[in-house]
Amino acid sequence: MSGLTRGRERAVIGFCLSSRAPLSTLPFKCLLVVVLPRWGLCVLNSFGCGLAALGRKRLDLAPMRLRLPLMIPMIPILLISLTLPAPREHAHAEDRGSSANLEAAWANLDSPKPAARDAARKEIEAQPLSTWKSRALGETRPWASIEALLALCHACPMSEGAALRPHLCEGITTLRIEQMTAGQTLAAIRLTRLVCTRFGEPTEDERQQMLDLWPRFLPSPPENKQTPDQRQITRELRELLSLLRGVD
């Protein structure tokens, strides 16, 4: 802040520079605040346009001279506005943050810990579907592939479900179920059930695709000789096959 003397007038000039833009409605990065005893307070931007006062209905391109009492309540607003990020910079920062969150979540999608996988999947579901849909369909890690397809089921709008379901069914057939643990197999069975119920009845081709896949994964030992995990797989897989065979 500095003082200037010109003739009989004394002006107090404050020159504010900021790398960030003020409010989104104020498209400039530099404010020149001039206090003149006779004219009151003038606010100029770096392009020479005046700043409209609260309650003004029009913005004059010439510098506006406003009485000091009217402008005093606006001074805190001006100071605060200088600390606000520019809309474009803020949008870029959000994009970078979203991308970083997506990458971090994707890394945890194959975690052996259920809670970590669940949190990662929910973080992914919160991102725009278009930014990770193809990646989800191409995922090959055991847990990550199941969780990614599950995220697609949850995040896909109902109106787009019928178009997505063939891709989900195709993704299920590539899960390499024969190499999965009991927990992964159960998760894949539940995923298949969700795919076949969430978006309406599957088509005949989709139903047959699942019927060709799942029967061979029924545990071979008699049920009374199965482990608890095998019995759980048997029970849920039979329910799934009954559902598929009951679809007209």
Write the layout of secondary structure elements.
Elements: E1 2-6, E2 9-17, E3 30-36, E4 40-45, E5 65-66, H1 68-71, H2 75-81, H3 87-108, H4 114-125, H5 133-138, H6 142-155, H7 161-173, H8 182-198, H9 204-213, H10 228-246
Antiparallel strand pairs: 1-2, 2-3, 3-4, 4-5
Helix pairs in contact: 3-4, 4-6, 6-7, 6-8, 7-8, 7-9, 8-10
Spans with pLDDT under 50 lasting ≥5 residues? 1-67
**N-to-C series of helices and strands:** EEEEEHHHHHHHHHH
Report the helical percentage.
Answer: 40-55%
User: How is the main sheet built?
Assistant: 5 strands, antiparallel
Number of domains: 2
User: How does the overall form come out from the CA principal axes?
Assistant: elongated
Number of strands: 5
Rg, Å, rounded? 32 Å
Q: Name the beta content range.
A: 5-15%
Strand order of the largest sheet: 1-2-3-4-5
Residue-averaged pLDDT, rounded?
76
Q: What kind of assembly state do the chains in view correspond to?
A: single chain
What is the terminal-to-terminal distance?
81 Å
The total of helices stands at: 10
| Helix/sheet category | alpha+beta
